[in-house]
């Protein structure tokens, strides 16, 4: 990647670069240009691996299953013995999971076997217990069997040396189990991304304290802590910073020293006390600071030294939308993660929607199915960007493209489920 400043000057020569009103998709692509995965990796215990990102391909050190095992409770037999049904075989022992049958099985003999037990070396098939008549120490088997039946073959699931997981995979519960099944107790992952977080606003009070006139509770700190928590980053929580240029500058410089990414909320509009964009230009570089979207128009992205900076709007809904639409994928890329599939579907919108062309809109919606199984969606109440209850009720975004104008009830819309 070239330096931020040379990249920006190249951008400015492009006709459609407008840092004051960046289209959503262009903003996403622009941010991508600045993202490279963290260079530092670490070895961690498998039990601590949930939500971490693999920093190396995983090759299987073994076959899975490592031997041939029984897939059923029944009898391990030599298939050739079943040629003339009904066949009568002598029971000479038993095999359990973790307790193999030791010895040879001669023609005309069989071994009682449980699911997960090793197949005795002379046997090649397992007959389910339901298909067998037991008479003392011998059994009788009818016809209709095939050679090799009911056996999980060595290497059937994974062969030794095969690539099981690639670098960039997020460790979920399934991957934890998979890695354990291959005998890994430690894995190499990207180090945790350090994200510094602070809210700006003289009106903000922390929950648990009484509100003075004109104060509101700082909700952005908590929704951001929640969204960051889901990503498994290391959070540097710097609380609330006053709308004071000197304090904000100190906070930004301090955060840039300690973190890979800075996320702030508030102070990016053009009000009297909105210093964030000014400061970013002063101590770092502004890539853009307004997006052609609603909610979330004031969204600043830039760099302070090597640190990425996201200045989110103050409005609580706008904070969540901009985080989910821009910041989350950026953090994932920095964490070394492979891009996640965004699931979008089309639904019939039961609510009429007021919109004017010019910006992409993310309305909060409630998605469900009608009697015939089709997707239907309606808006989740008032859509002002300060109203968090509509966010809490919602289970999806209704995404309305830039050119879209007013929408009648019954129109087809694009929906992003949460
Ligand atoms: P600003 O972008 O700072 O002008 O803030 C826009 C609106 O969001 C104002 O009404 C603020 O009071 C509100 N706001 C800003 N920060 C927060 C926060 N951390 N929690 C809740 N509301 C906020
Ligand atoms: Mg403010």
Question: Any descriptors?
Answer:
Molybdopterin biosynthesis moea protein, domain 2; 418 residues; binds magnesium ion; Molybdenum Cofactor Biosythetic Enzyme, Chain A; 8 helices; alpha/beta; binds adenosine monophosphate; 6-stranded mixed sheet; 4 domains; 30% strand
Describe, in plain words, how this protein is organized in 3D.
This protein has 4 domains: 4-40 and 192-334, MoaB/Mog-like domain (Molybdenum Cofactor Biosythetic Enzyme, Chain A); 42-64 and 156-190, Molybdopterin biosynthesis moea protein, domain 2, CATH 3.90.105.10; 69-152, Molybdopterin biosynthesis moea protein, domain 3 (Molybdopterin biosynthesis moeA protein, domain 3, Beta Complex); 345-417, MoeA, C-terminal, domain IV (Beta-clip, Beta Barrel), CATH 2.40.340. The radius of gyration is 31 Å and the shape is elongated. It has 8 helices and 26 strands. The chain has 418 residues and is of the alpha/beta class. Bound molecules: adenosine monophosphate and magnesium ion.
């Amino acid at each position: 990647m070239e330096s931020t400043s040379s990249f920006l000057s190249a951008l400015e020569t492009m006709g459609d670069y407008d840092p004051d009103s960046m289209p959503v998709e262009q903003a996403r692509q622009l941010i991508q240009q600045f993202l490279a995965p963290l260079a530092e990796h670490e070895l961690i215990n498998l039990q601590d691996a949930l939500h971490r990102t693999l920093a190396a391909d995983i090759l299987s050190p073994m076959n899975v299953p490592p031997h041939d095992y029984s897939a059923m409770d029944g009898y391990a037999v030599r298939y050739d013995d079943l040629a003339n049904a009904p066949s009568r075989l002598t029971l000479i022992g038993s095999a359990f999971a973790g307790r193999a049958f030791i010895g040879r099985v001669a023609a005309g003999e069989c071994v009682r076997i449980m699911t997960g037990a090793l197949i005795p070396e002379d046997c090649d098939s397992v007959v389910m217990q339901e298909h067998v008549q037991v008479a003392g120490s011998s059994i009788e088997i009818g016809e209709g069997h095939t050679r090799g039946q009911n056996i999980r073959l060595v290497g059937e699931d994974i062969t030794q040396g095969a690539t099981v997981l690639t670098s960039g995979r997020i460790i979920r519960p399934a991957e934890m189990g998979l890695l354990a099944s291959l005998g890994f107790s430690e894995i190499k992952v990207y180090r945790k991304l350090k994200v510094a977080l602070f809210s700006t606003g003289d009106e903000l009070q922390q929950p648990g304290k009484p509100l003075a006139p004109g104060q509101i509770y700082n909700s952005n700190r908590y929704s951001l802590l929640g969204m960051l928590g889901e990503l498994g980053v290391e959070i540097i929580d710097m609380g609330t910073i006053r709308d004071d240029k000197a304090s904000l500058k100190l906070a930004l410089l301090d955060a840039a020293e300690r973190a890979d990414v800075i996320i702030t909320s508030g102070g990016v509009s053009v009000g009297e006390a909105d210093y964030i964009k000014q400061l970013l230009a002063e101590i770092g570089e502004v890539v853009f600071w307004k997006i052609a979207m609603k909610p979330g128009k004031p969204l600043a992205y830039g760099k302070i030294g090597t640190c990425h900076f996201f200045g989110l709007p103050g409005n609580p809904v706008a904070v969540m939308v901009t985080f989910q639409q821009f910041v989350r994928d950026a953090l994932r890329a920095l964490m070394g993660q492979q891009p996640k599939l965004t699931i979008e579907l089309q639904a019939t919108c039961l609510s009429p929607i007021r919109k004017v062309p010019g910006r992409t809109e993310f309305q909060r919606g409630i998605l469900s199915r009608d009697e015939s199984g089709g997707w239907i969606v309606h808006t989740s109440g008032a859509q002002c960007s300060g109203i968090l209850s509509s966010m809490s009720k919602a289970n999806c975004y209704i995404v309305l493209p830039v050119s879209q104008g007013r929408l009648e009830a019954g129109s087809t819309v694009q929906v992003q489920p949460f």
